[in-house]
Amino acid sequence: MVHLMQLPCGPQPCGQLDRISARNWKIVRMAVYDQTLIERIQRASDIVDIIGEHVSLTRKGREMVGLCPFHDDHRPSMNVSPHKQIFKCFACGAGGDVFKFVQLRENLSFPQAVERLAERAGIVVEQVRFTKAPADPNAVDPNRLARANAWAAKYFEENLWHEKTGASARRYLEGRRIGVEEAKKWSVGLACDSPAALLTAARARRIPDAVLLQAGLTVGNQDKFVNRLMFPIVDAT
User: Quick one: 79 and 191 in the same domain?
Assistant: First the structure.
């Protein structure tokens, strides 16, 4: 099963998604979060408290130091900045914000880390999920919905790595400390800021509007996802 999480990128286009092979086509659902929710979760998840649950920290000037949990550390080489809300190990190079720490510590994707910290903070994560329509004469074959989402995933991914189209998105990811290797590992994708970019591309591929609508990719004659980073959540169901 593939879930897609979107994050708004401000005034510039951003995003990326998931590669899905034909053999893995299943019903695709989309989980949608707003950037303000991400920021709220981050504010409620003090990095010193989170890391302190795993590592004994001691104060050193304005920062905290402790043994890095990501390598065999025998002398405190990890610095935690309460002011900047980031951590950095000067031995192995691990570093980032509170989401990154949870990702590394628990081997989670970025969306999974968001949900884990939301649960810890008691914040309800409301998602808009698009599933197959109930059986009716106008229902689209679930396999066609899955294929449409698989195509969209590839389309979003290509947007992110396009030299010009994805330039602002890639800079945004850099600012969030999500590097190229990690973005590709988690197959992040870009929904452009044009209101009908995906719809136009899909029509060129002769994908019916009804399929796009029921797949949760469009609303009327416009794209559902505009100016968004797309993060997939993949499971085996």
Answer: no
Number of alpha carbons in the 13 Å side-chain half-sphere of residue 93: 1
d(CA 85, CA 81): 5
Are 69 and 104 in a shared domain? yes
Residues in the chain, pLDDT under 70: 1-35, 126-140, 232-237
Which two three-digit tokens encode residue 99? Answer: 């989401």
Structural contact between residues 190 and 167, judged by C-beta atoms closer than 8 angstroms: no
The residue type at 2: V
* Domain that residue 77 falls in: 47-108
Residues 67 and 102 occupy one common structural domain: yes
Q: What's the CA gap between 178 and 171, in Å, rounded?
A: 10
pLDDT of residue 8: 53
Coil/strand/helix, residue 103:
helix
pLDDT of residue 104: 93
| Nearest Cα residue to 222 out of 237, 200, 206 | 200
Task: State residue 227's pLDDT score.
Answer: 86
Give me the CATH number covering residue 73. 3.90.580.10
How many residues are listed for the chain in this entry?
A: 237
- Taking Cα atoms as reference points, which of 76, 49, 214, 73 lies closest to residue 144? 214
pLDDT of residue 145: 79
| Per-residue model confidence (pLDDT) at position 139 | 65
Spatial separation of the C-alpha atoms in residues 139 and 129, rounded to whole Å: 17
